[in-house]
Design goal:
mainly beta; two-stranded antiparallel ribbon
């Protein structure tokens, strides 16, 4: 458009053929509690994809803006039918013949501004994704809407010659609208500090907090690393999970299911690394 603005429009058409997993005739155990029935004969699926991208840059003022919208339409020929065993221990998914359209529309944007003090950069990201899909239920083929929202704020700076800071926070919401609405909210905080006190020595501290608002669970991780460079050799010591968290819990939505996961972690580990270039 001009020296600072540009607009691009892209369109694509694809004919997706079944992959090796879809061609397999039998049951696939995708987890300890999930079975996917692959006795259905898959068919090729046609899809249309379009994106519209606007970008504005002002390098002298350190201002950047990017906005992109997308549209994807796929002609589906089968849908999943999900049932559980009588004891509610195993989830079984089977493909059933069905003709419908899977459509996705979304928009995401990013604004960033470079600041004069501390050689810093402030950025804001946001996205919204809406999907219309279908799945077999007790009443036959049922359509449902899936909404995914996210917002992020990040800040990076170098207040001192030997100190770099990177801070960020991310909020994510997943929502499914079928007979009843279900949703999950997650927050993630990240704080990284890098200290190069000498030319060949770098010390870094990485902190992250993962919080699942629906189940009121949060987990804090702290990792330390120190690396020394001598000629072509790098010597590094990494301490992961310094605080010693041994459990990580989260809840998220997949398709029309609400899943809860609990992970058992190593309380702490120390790794030594040596690498070289030639």
């Amino acid at each position: 458009m001009n020296a600072h603005s540009s607009v691009s429009l892209r369109y694509g058409y694809a004919q997706r053929f079944p992959n090796l997993r879809d061609l397999y005739q039998g049951n696939l155990f995708v987890s300890y509690r999930s079975i996917t029935d692959k006795t259905h004969t898959p068919q090729p699926e046609a899809s249309h994809h379009a994106t519209l991208h606007y970008q504005y840059t002002q390098p002298l003022k350190g201002f950047f803006l990017s906005v992109m919208s997308l549209l994807n339409i796929t002609q589906k020929h089968s849908a999943y039918h999900t049932i559980t065993t009588p004891d509610n221990q195993i989830v079984r998914r089977s493909l059933v013949d069905a003709d419908y359209q899977l459509s996705t529309v979304g928009i995401n944007g990013r604004i960033s501004q470079a600041l004069s003090f501390w050689k810093s950069l402030l950025a804001i990201n946001g996205s919204c994704m809406l999907t219309k899909n279908a799945q077999y239920g007790d009443e036959g083929l049922q359509t449902y809407n899936a909404h995914i929202y996210s917002a992020a704020l990040s800040f990076s700076a170098r207040p001192l010659r030997f100190l770099s800071i990177e801070l960020s926070t991310l909020w994510q919401r997943s929502k499914i609208a079928l007979n009843t609405d279900i949703k999950t909210d997650r927050l993630t905080y990240q704080a990284d500090f890098t200290l190069p006190p000498f030319t060949n020595f770098t010390f870094s501290i990485n902190n992250s907090v993962c919080q699942s608002l629906d189940i009121d669970k949060h987990t804090w991780f702290t990792d330390l690393s120190a690396m020394y460079t001598f000629k072509r050799f790098d010597f590094e010591i990494v301490v992961n999970n310094l605080i010693g968290q041994n459990r990580y819990e989260q809840e998220f939505i997949s398709s029309i299911e609400q899943n809860y996961y609990r992970y058992t972690l190593r309380p702490r580990e120390i790794i030594g690394k040596i690498s070289f270039n030639f």
